[in-house]
Design a protein that fits this description.
Length: 249
């Protein structure tokens, strides 16, 4: 029963993340106006805004104008719900569940925005960095620290290790390839990841991300030729792997 409740609340959180994914790149408020169809602009009724179920019942179309609704909406809701349940099963309801949940939410938004517009909103990366520093200070157990000041130091070291590793990779990559190799958004995203995970798991995330990105990158280049590959999704995937399997690795 507890798992089902966590899954439901995760799906509700995913619905809000969809709002962030759609509106943040446009510079729109994530609070108002309420949910509406981007095609006909009519407000979405509450019974058409139930996570996962409403998409299936409406068969992925607006009730009024019948315009197709992006499958991204149900995908984000399912991913968020599944991640929430997985975190609950592994970490229970302690500080790590909450902290990793906040980080995962930021990573989901960053991933889908980066895939769509090749940018990561500062509201997520920098806002998440500050949130990580504050949360770790309030909940030292997040980084297995004995006091808030030790936890804060570990969080700062994590942000520096995460952001610094990506910055250096971009710096040397630019020297070799004579063009920008890593965007500033990736640097800030890794700083956010490090603030939540600490320096050890931040560095593990740095080394895991190319493994996830290499296969997809080679496929994309073979298909489309030289192009800009969003790196945020692979950093996010590596961070999730570090959360669940970092200690064992």
């Amino acid at each position: 029963m507890d798992k089902i409740l966590v899954f439901i609340f995760g799906a509700i959180a995913g619905s809000f993340l969809n709002v962030c994914i759609y509106r943040l790149p446009k510079g729109e408020s994530i609070v108002s106006p309420g949910s509406h169809c981007p095609k006909c602009k009519k407000p979405i009724r509450w019974y058409d805004n139930i996570p996962i179920l409403s998409y299936l019942i409406l068969r992925g179309r607006c009730r009024f104008c019948k315009a197709p609704i992006s499958p991204r909406y149900i995908i984000v809701e399912l991913i968020t719900a599944a991640l929430a349940m997985a975190l609950f099963m592994v970490f229970g309801t302690g500080p790590k569940f909450v902290g990793y949940g906040l980080l995962s939410a930021g990573l989901i938004v960053a991933t889908f925005v980066d895939l769509e517009i090749r940018e990561i909103p500062d509201e997520i990366s920098l806002g998440g960095l500050v949130a990580g520093l504050i949360f770790v200070s309030v909940s030292p157990g997040m980084l297995s620290a004995a006091s808030w000041n030790k936890a804060l130091i570990l969080s700062i070291l994590g942000a520096a290790a995460g952001g610094g590793s990506i910055y250096l990779m971009g710096f040397f990559g630019e020297m070799v390839f004579k063009k920008e190799a890593m965007g500033g958004g990736d640097v800030k995203l890794m700083a956010m990841i490090g603030a939540f995970l600490g320096w050890k798991l931040a560095l593990l995330t740095f080394f895991l991300a190319p493994i996830f990105g290499s296969v997809a990158g080679l496929i994309q280049k073979a298909k489309d030729g030289p192009s800009i590959i969003p790196y945020g999704p692979y950093l996010s995937l590596a961070a999730i792997a570090s959360i669940f399997w970092g200690d064992k690795i």
